[in-house]
Amino acid sequence: MKRLFLLVSLLVLSKFSAQAWATEDQYIQKFAKYAVEEMEKYKIPASITLAQGLLETGGGQSRLAQEGKNHFGIKCKEDWTGKTMKHTDDAPNECFRVYEDPRQSYEDHSIFLSTRKYYTNLFNLNMKDYKAWAHGLKKAGYATNPRYASILISKIEKYRLYEYDDTSSTEVLYAVLKMYPDLKDDRAFMAQLEPSKNISKKAKDAVTVEVPYKQTSYAQQQKRVERIKTKAEILNSILIKTHPNDGLRYIVIPEDTNVKFIADKFRVSESRLMKWNELESDVLKKNDIVFLESKNSSGNTAVYKAESGEDMHDIAQKFGIKLNKLYAKNRMDEGQKPSAGQLIYLIDKKPRN
């Protein structure tokens, strides 16, 4: 009887052990694509993103991942306006973000890292140096576990996640197949590699747009639909940039839109965007510069010659300087416009004549 009990126990333990091993591999197979897509958009190593996802979700099995689609343990913070859930982490019943799907969690993780000042130094690191990124995340306070960096590095090296740092979003599934050759017998996975299936996937993931009805020919209406859809897709591919003025995070608007769209996309309140960018209207035009954090009081270069047609707001946005500070430095009244060729002081105050 004791031998039978021991045999059953060993079988159960081996089953659980196998399941734990399979769970992490299956997580990589499912989410490597998201990690590479985010790497292309935000310049965060796919290996780091995947390792964090593996660790934070326990291979996709954590309560936060299962119920909240939250793969990175991101807490609510003061700027979160979406759904929330209570979960015990560092303290009982802490507030965590809830997402509609894992893809949204992956993008929010990228936005979270790329828009907060204490992670700025990460983006000065070599994108292929996963060890430096792991230690940088720990140093910046991403997690409280003193072994956080070494755990990330261990997972990256155990599963060779660094290989995904050298691939692209169009090739990542082939990289996964190379890593897991048995997937050639997985019909669902292989279907993703077929062009016809890829077209269906793109259609499924396409941006939903509303096209106002207008009585016209079918061909004209279809052209209109494509034009609007293309604009929406362009807006959804906006990349966060790092400004030379102390690494401020900003974006360049690729198509006409409004503040609400940008606020929703980057999880920032409309009022903050309006304040940080000194906007008088919620309308954003193509090529407008929009900062995702408060601008600085000074520029990173001493002076600038105003170009024809530029106003002080244009210059403030170009150099990441608060508009009221720019007026004060140049002894100008609010609303006063510079003349073409006028020397604009960005660091020190303009000398008195």
TrEMBL record:
One short Pfam name that applies is: Glucosaminidase
Q: Which organism is it from?
A: Chryseobacterium carnipullorum
A Gene Ontology BP annotation from the UniProt entry: defense response to bacterium
Signal sequence interval, chain numbering:
1-22
User: Which protein are we looking at?
Assistant: Peptidoglycan hydrolase
Q: Encoded by which gene?
A: lytG
Q: Does the keyword Zinc-finger apply?
A: no
Highest rank taxon of the organism: Bacteria
Q: Tell me the PANTHER family matching this sequence.
A: PEPTIDOGLYCAN HYDROLASE FLGJ
**Keywords from the named record:** Antimicrobial, Bacteriolytic enzyme, Glycosidase, Hydrolase, Signal
